[in-house]
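pasting input
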Amino acid sequence: MSHPGRVHNPSRYVVPSLDEVLSFTGSAVAEAAQSLIPSASETLIDRSVARMASSYDYDDASLDSRYPRPPSAGQGSAGTDQGYDPNFVPDSVKTFVVHLYRHIREKNVYEIHQMYDGSFQRLSDRMFRECPWPSVEAIAPYVDNDHVFCLLYREMWFRHLYARLSPTGRQRVESWDNYCSLFSVVLHGVVNMQLPNQWLWDMVDEFVYQFQSYCQYRAKLKNKTEEELQLLRQYDQAWNVYGVLNYLQALVEKSAITDVLEREKEGLEQFTATDGYDYEGGTSNVLKMLGYYSMIGLLRVHCLLGDYHTGLKCLAPIDISQQGVYNVVIGSHISTIYHYGFANLMLRRYVEAIREFNKILLYILKYKQYHQKSPQYDQILKKNEQMYALLAICLSLCPQNNLVEENVNSQLRDKYNEKMTKMLRYDDEAYAVYDELFTYACPKFITPSAPVLEEPLTNYNQDAYRLQLKLFLYEVKQQQLLSGVRSFLKLYSTISIGKLAAYMEVDEPTLRTILMTYKHKMHAIDGDGKIIPNADVDFYISEDIVHVVESKPTKRYGDYFLRQILKFEEMIGELDRIKLD
Amino acid sequence: MGREQQQVSYTVEQLVSVNPYNPDIVSDLENYVNEQVSSQTYSLEANLCLLRLYQFEPGRMSIPIVVQILIKALMAMPASDFSLCLFLIPEQVQMEEQFKTLIVLSHYLETARFRQFWDEAAKSRSILEVVPGFEQAIQAYAIHVLSLTYQKVPRPVLAEAINIEGLSLDKFIEHHVANSGWALEKSHGRSQLIVLPRNEFNHPELKKHTADGVPFEHVTRVFPILS
């Protein structure tokens, strides 16, 4: 972006080379990127391809439940049939882009946010419910053909398309190209604007979402037309997993965000206090914030691949026990905790997962009313429900006293009381419930490898999910006998191995194995190799006698008093400020 | 030779943390797996990185390498490294005989069925003897689980868990009495009792009540008020 007042000369703007990213992703990406910027005539070809493509069954509806879908959606690009003219720019759009462009040049973050969050949604609702926004070529003249603004506009254009319509194969590839160009520009440090955090988060979030969506799309080969298969062959570098991961990694590294966070801990830098903005100096927050959000993006991608350990490592620089920039935008807050909790669940660190789910569910309970009008509201609700399901799973595998706050607990019981009772029984019905809840709440796992585009063409988009589900249920099965032990242990303070074996109707050696399994499963190993006890009921064996130890719920007096002191101090301050007439 | 080896592993670890999403490092990582096996070291990060790259390009997967990674992961128990690795290996690959055997072995260890484990391990010696230190690692895991569970463990239970009997077991116990804080006791009428070292898991009174501690930074927030 140029300085305000100076007209940006498009002919002198050199498209930055991708050499930095080339070292990670290979030259094929660059080639694809260069060749994919569509010309006006190509959009006409797009529409005929889109019409042919719209016939196949594409349950993107199940993937993108983020936005309420108008009834005609799901029939492919139905909008394009209804006389959509990509070159027609209604006056309201003209005004929109002109004002947005000006606000960006003037670095008026507040106004940008109003337009991005408010006007864009309103215009989409009013005029673009079932068709895309005008093409970028059509609006470019109104914004001095500014290269970067056009990239931003196209990003929003594609996001709108994904939300309201079904993107074609070609459009998916074009969107990838747009992200490549946009991120390359940012990585080369040539952007000079400040954008609202909501927008920057949405960019990263959408990037990962479109990647996930593309993996699902290209794993369903059975009903693809020859056209589509040809597209997959030709643009085989689009949305390749190396590219996606390396862009996110490059953003994290180039922004030096981990250093920023380290220095902040030592008081040498302001970051969280200003939400990442630079109010005084006006330097661009774009690279920094994209780097920050990319850490969450990496956590998400690794969860989609089934690599939970590395995902958590990517998130490690962000301290989620503290307030931080990650919880400024509610979407990023929820996404962070959801994936963090899920990763911990798969790593068998149940107590950690329960703790974090509890905090966020309480937060959503308190504050969701303020987001009712926001376009993210449905997604917030969906994730809320999914996290209750995950919480139910965690508490069934690892019962706890007093880790779940009262209101959250009553919501949980409302939704899942019956299912949780079933899960504790560990019979066939129990596995069905674990299966159901896991399937409902898990991320949409992906197969990252390139498709084999030869006969026989199959749909293998469910393979990744099936593997994770199978391994999860395997773990559940291994804990099958533990709940029986737990209920017996709760009844006694001491009991001999012989007697307990008789009650449980197993022989003594088997009982010993069960007791050892209980100990092993209830003591997770954290990232540093420390042993973390998870059990609410514990025991030890001395020769032949089992001694039961019930852990008393620890009342956190210290924390409680601190909170109350601060609260009352605040109240006293407020009362002091009231002047009585 | 030792110093050279150290240099190689330093570079591989760096590769994994700086440039992990890179198909060109596959052979480095494979060599590193072989090195971990021969020098009895272990790196979860590097092995996960390799499994990920195999996931991205299934054609390059080397079954023997994956088998070695899984055996190393088994040796890392009680950490859940084995399941972490399984999450990254496609289902069809897991159907191969060697993997099925390893999964069964892991199952026995996870459910503390040591007798069945050692029986099965004996049958699968050909797969397992590739990795030196396997037996010792599993014995260490068995002792870990026993230490969580027992203050005093009967000798037969210990014997079954670590698959040592008779004179060798006597020697083993002697060694740990001398070095690891074990003790011996006579139980009424029956066999020996091995008294395991006290820790917070088999002696609950040792558990530190850290939950009620308050981090210092939180307390500093009230200093302005208190003054």
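fyi The mean pLDDT of chain B is 87.
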